[in-house]
Amino acid sequence: MENSVIVIGGGISGMTAAGMLALQGLSVTLLEKEKETGGHLARWDRLFPDRRKASEVLDFAREGMKRVNLVTGVTVTDISRQGREFTVVINSPIPNPQSPTPDHETVLKARALLLATGFDLFEARKKEEYGYGIYNNVITSADLEDRFKLKKGILTSEGKIPARIGIVHCVGSRDEKVGNLYCSKVCCVTGVKQAIELKEMLPAAEVFNFYMDLRMFDRHFEELYYEAQQKWNVNFIRGRLSECAENPDGSIIVKTEDTLTGKPFKITVDLLVLLTGFVPAGSTGDIAGMLGLVTGTDGFINSADSHIMNNSTDIPGVFVAGAVKGPISIGEAIADARAAAIQLAIYLNSPTPADD
Amino acid sequence: MIKFNLFVLPFSLGLIYVVYSIVIHYYRWIKSLPAVDKVKLANGLRTPSKVLASLKEIFLEGLIHRKLWKRNPLLGYMHMSFALGWFLLIVMGNLESRIYHGAYINAPYYPIFLKFFIHDRLVLFFEIFTVPAFFRFIMDFLLLFVLSGLGLALIKRKQSQWFGLKRTTNHSFFDRVALSCLWMIFPLRLLAESYTAGYFGGGGGFLTQNLGNLLIKISPGPAESIAYIFWWSYSLALGLFFIMMPYSRYMHIPSELLLIIFRHCGIQPKKWGSSFSDLELHSCSRCGVCIDACQLNFAAGISDIQAIYLIRGQRDQYVPENIAMTCMLCGRCQEACPVGIKVDLLRLIKRREIGSGQVSDFSYLTQSYPGFAEVVYFAGCMSHLTPSIHIAMEGIFREAGVDYLFVDRGGSTCCGRPLMLAGKDKQSNELIEFNKTLIRQTRARLLVTSCPICYKVFREEYNLPIRIQHHSQYILELVREGKIALQSQHRKVVYHDPCDLGRGGNVYDAPRELLRKISDLMPVEKECADALCCGGSLGLMNTTLQKKDEVTRNALQFLLAGNPDILVTACPLCKKTFVKHSKTEVRDIAELVHDAIPGRQIRKIMDPQKAEAAIP
Predict the structure, then answer these.
(1) pTM of the model
(2) Which of A130, A157, A202, A255 to mutate to test binding with chain B, by most B CBs within 10 Å of its CB?
């Protein structure tokens, strides 16, 4: 295929970039390991800071992908490069009725690759002291979004309306003890957004956010934080959780410290939400290994230059977009994917690449 | 018969100096022993069985070097050739000198330089079986024996891995001087004796005579003067070696003899140090076995803080804080030490000197009345960070119908060991007293803990009048008594020995016996006394988390080499440490046992991801 591109990863970055590349007349194939595209965005109900529906953003991205050749439910098993051409072997776990073997292998060729394998959510069970997977009323922020989407109300595992809800920031982020020193960037504002949404649904409930710092880095974020305090009466306690325990009635005892008063702080909540951070997707490491790409000590892909070449890699023809390079918000991911698409198109149109 | 020459002076002066120095050291070590230890020593020396046992150990460890043989035959042979060879040279040399000298008391230099004073004519063939000829043969043989060890020592400089040593010691100046003298002594003796034998045409054995004849032939010259120079050099090397001995690692030779006797008399090292510990410092031969045993060395590339450097610093009365504080206190080097020095204790003594000054205020701790029970369960603060462990333990207690009390359910007061590892014993004693009161109030007959760190300190420091068990021992007892029935899940598991439970508590078999009942236990490369530390040690006060991570990842490589389904440990801290890096499931033995109880009361655990299904 002339001028063909393979995009690996069908989250918002991969979808946006694939759409942009197809718009420029390139032949684009998007590979996604799940059955559906959309990635983490598909699981989310509403987005910060304006709480627009996540599905609207996803629909927009899907609309742009009409000319993209979409292959879902596949994993990449091998990648090799011969000059300016890449060979990508994909393995479909879904049995192919035409193929006698259940694992059907297909070989694809491309002149450029775009990696958009994104991130996984931190496995909250690793922070065993918070009791996720042990205590029924400890859930993650993603679990909470599932409940928002279901629109059946928020109840404890005992079927009661929670009177007090805790939201824990930095679970698996900025935490050397689990090996993640970096900030996941979007959890702070997500915690504020979810606190407001909980107060909207349960005006009688008390909501406590337990945080180290609140990093309201982008436009309208700080306003949202003010709104949470002034309009919705959300409590913010500066202190990192040490451990949780469970009462016989299923409520959760939270042990922390209020570092502003310098005192240990113990509180019982009916529901505890853990704001789990970003970790590199499992497939990122695999694909980086096949290509010989450099990852940072945090496991995210290092681009060729963090300022002026941040969609290129050290391998000519291999480009990166979105959370594969580290924590990023939806808006930033879309902008980054568009930039990557342009960089990639320029590379394909250049007759003699300097470093090839 | 001439019995004196000026060249014997360096040797004689060196000998006088070293004997004087050793006597002074012995006198100080014995004099400054606590009174109770002095009584032990006096009684021990009057007990023939203890004296015999000491002599046996001195022979096996001081001359044969049995432990080094077990470690590596080349290393064992090298040390044996030096120690046993030299010892026999002295003994046989003394006997040999009796032939030529009837007196009971000899000048000490006389047997050493015998061949300078005595040079028999060539023996005739039929005289080979005479007494002098026998001695000539045996003395040459012993010299060759020592020289073979010297050859190996030279090879070891370049190829230490052949001797089972990956990394050798970085020696101090005095050690280098003493080592050079030691290495010169025997080749110089060989040359001196050979030249003399060659010049006189007799008096040498199979080695020195033949070599002497050859030397005379190939380098004609004033043989007598050349021989005389070598006799001087030989004496100088010996004298200098003796003078350097008290300042170098070779002081370990006389020190270890006394240490062995002390130990057989039942003298123990003291928590705050005593002359026993000082004797231990001097007994270190700086062999470097501890460097290879240390995970900080082979997994994290830290190679300047090992026991040998701590001990050398303590002998020189200068230990940088970094050396005292950078150590996991896992006990691996102590286990490997051929001299059996209690290295971890020596390091703690140093930490106590550094850390005892600070004060802490525990006035906020208030006693509550816990209630009574048969068995008191102390999960420990680490188990509160891994709640699956104490939840499993409570399940087991209930299944077994035990009258138990979860005494730290609302949160633990620290057992005191972490502060103790930091050298803050006074503060730690406050916590110990607090917990002792709490535990005593329960009037329990048995204390069970889920944490090996607590287990060690409960046993060693609490002086509680009740039995103390780690949960692996306790559960095994419940199984043996038929209080809980188990059904094997047949999953492939490996077991990781926690440092404080294994080397620290000598509990190796109970967890393994339990695991064999409920799973398919696989062996791992380093286990039991040789087990690796998980890297999460509370003893490591002075290093980056990245270095700890390197230790953890390295340990996981060994543990997970056989691709087990589950990595099982018996310590909440090990579990938390491994979870960070392990792709394989990590669980505590109590969790596994709880899962293996058929028909157990299953705690309703709802997958939070599916929780919405339950919402009406």
Answers:
(1) 0.87
(2) A157
